[in-house]
Backbone:
């Protein structure tokens, strides 16, 4: 997210169009804000929090998917090691002890 600050000033060094175009070229969101007059501050924080939340959930979903694949691969390896087949084929025989 790109924020254009000091929108309360009459002579901006970077125009709204320049800021918006740059943000588009980088695939960012764009908001104009003023800390002095409180213009756009709430929207900026809400947008930022929303983006963070979406990225965290996206990462969590990908991590969950990776874990499920790892568990599946581990189970497949155990099945191959113990011999494929029914329930009896997946259990290791216990050795008699002393």
Residues:
């Amino acid at each position: 997210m790109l924020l254009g600050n000091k929108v309360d000033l009459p002579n901006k060094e970077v125009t709204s169009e320049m800021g918006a175009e740059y943000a588009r070229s980088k695939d960012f969101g764009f908001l104009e804000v003023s800390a002095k007059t409180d213009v756009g501050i709430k929207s900026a924080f809400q947008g930022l929090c929303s983006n963070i939340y979406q990225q965290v959930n996206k990462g969590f979903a990908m991590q969950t998917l990776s874990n499920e694949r790892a568990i599946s691969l581990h189970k497949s390896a155990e099945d191959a090691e113990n011999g494929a087949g029914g329930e009896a084929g997946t259990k290791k025989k216990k050795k008699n002890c002393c």
Remarks:
- The chain has a mean pLDDT of 79.
- The chain has three helices and two strands.
- The first strand starts at residue 2 and ends at 4.
- Residues 2-64 form a domain with the Rossmann fold fold (CATH 3.40.50.300).
